[in-house]
Amino acid sequence: MPKKKSDPESKPKKESLNRAAGKTRKAVAAKVADPIAEPAALPKPEPEASPAKPPKAAKEPKAAKEAKPAPKKPAIVISNDDISLRAYFIAERRQKLGWPGDSTGDWVEAERQLRAEAKKKKP
Question: How many whole angstroms separate alpha carbon 121 and alpha carbon 78?
Answer without folding.
Answer: 13
